[in-house]
Amino acid sequence: MPPLPDPEPSFSSPAMQRRLLLRAAAGTLLFSPWLKAAQARAAVNLAATPIGRMDLPWWRKRFEASLQQVRRSQPELVWLGDSITENWERSSPQPWADYQPIWQREYGRYQPLNLGFIGDTTSSVLWRLDHGQVQGLSPKVCILLIGANNLGRPHWGAHLTVPGIEAVVDKVHQLLPHTAVLLLGVLPSKRSAWISAETLKINAALAQRYAHSPFVTFLNVGHVLLDAQGQPDPALYLEGHEAHQTVLLHPDAQGMQRIAQAIAPTLDKLMTDAPDRPKSP
């Protein structure tokens, strides 16, 4: 039998740190405790570092399909984010899971493009942007909703996630300089007290950071998902329709309808104010 690996490897050597961070870039150690130790020693914020997920066949397939879609699209509106955004594609006989009619009603006139990927963090979105995700596009508005998964398995708190979101915003602006960015706050969820507290910190920091930005409009619309006690309303989350579910993370169709209505005045203004935009390189 081969010897077991050292359960507490040394991270003191720069070579070990480089190897771990390179493996992170390949997506193999994204959530490892070893990686967290390497990150701390190397002073690298992985939330602001492009990390792909091409080792996951379904993710690779969706990314490659999205590139094909990008090549044949000229949307005026792009939604960019994680599973909350991807859910806009869902159709269902169950009204609470039937997002597509709302998507078409709210955004169909803008030839919208959905670039949401299940499980994505800020690092995943950065990688996609670095690998042609919006190449050739020049939408009037990009709605960005990202950060929820940073607080999950990676356990990246506000001090890491805020710079990660800022990195995504900066990359979008670099690649789409004529596009207005509508940045949405991280939505309220029912996962842990720590996540709820970090969500508040993230949104407060983003509101301050982009209060006077010439190209970013920040909106925190999470209040539309709360009940009378100020807690996430189970009736507005997909998980709330499942028996014995204690986690609330993904807004259901009605929840997304409320979000769409909350951002509509701002989106309409951004669309109206937007000049004709040249095609991006």
Entry summary:
The protein is α/β, with parallel strands linked by helices.
* Count of β-strands: 5
| Residue runs with pLDDT of under 50 for 5 or more positions | 1-29
Number of domains: 1
At the fold tier of CATH, the topology name is Rossmann fold
CATH class: Alpha Beta
Order of helices and strands: HHHEHHEHEHEHEH
Mean pLDDT: 89
* Class of secondary structure makeup: alpha/beta
Major sheet: order of its strands? 2-1-3-4-5
Q: What's the shape?
A: globular
Determine the number of helices (DSSP H or I, runs of at least 4 residues): 9
Strand content: 5-15%
Largest sheet, if any? 5 strands, parallel
Q: Span between N and C termini?
A: 55 Å
Question: Which CATH architecture is right?
Answer: 3-Layer(aba) Sandwich
Indicate the percent of residues in helices.
Answer: 40-55%
Compute the gyration radius: what is it? 19 Å
